[in-house]
Amino acid sequence: MHQKLTVTVNGTDHELEIDTRITLATLVREHLGLTGTHVGCRTGNCGACTVRLDGATVKSCCVLALEVDGHRVETVESLRDGDDLHPVQQAFADAQALQCGFCTAGMVMSAVALLDGTPDPTEDEVRRGLAGNLCRCTGYTAILDAVAAAARDRRVPQ
């Protein structure tokens, strides 16, 4: 069964007719071509598919696409400004916090949401903010360093 869906993704309005069984992850990856959002576990455990829905992070593999009808979705692609990386993306690159890269988009989306709400987080707050995201390469130290650096960089006037 198919149904119409209207959604704003990364600032662009889309009107689509979709299979009612697909997830938000499938919508952004396969129907909109935004492949930065990765699908790892399909159960909401790994966080690779983390996106923002109306400003809140969600595991897009666990959200039916129809649930976002009339809402606003932001994927990792929304963070970049032309050739310029978002400060969190740049901090991940600088800290070498992207070993295989599979978890990176979800980690970055969770880190951006954390820093938007808690601009000067403690290490424990960073750990809690990223708790729903798993890194199979065990790059957690570099990831924590990257989020701390991004927080510091946001506080320093440019």
TrEMBL record:
It holds the Pfam family Fer2_2. Keywords: 2Fe-2S, Iron, Iron-sulfur, Metal-binding, Oxidoreductase. InterPro entries: 2Fe-2S-bd, 2Fe-2S-bd_dom_sf, 2Fe-2S_ferredoxin-like_sf, 2Fe-2S_ferredoxin-type, 2Fe2S_fd_BS, Beta-grasp_dom_sf, Diverse_Oxidoreductases. Pathway: Alkaloid degradation; nicotine degradation. GO terms for molecular function: 2 iron, 2 sulfur cluster binding; metal ion binding; oxidoreductase activity. Residues 3-79 form the 2Fe-2S ferredoxin-type domain. Gene3D superfamilies: 3.10.20.30, [2Fe-2S]-binding domain. PROSITE patterns: 2FE2S_FER_1, 2FE2S_FER_2. PANTHER family: OXIDOREDUCTASE WITH IRON-SULFUR SUBUNIT (PTHR44379), XANTHINE DEHYDROGENASE IRON-SULFUR-BINDING SUBUNIT XDHC-RELATED (PTHR44379:SF8). This is (2Fe-2S)-binding protein.
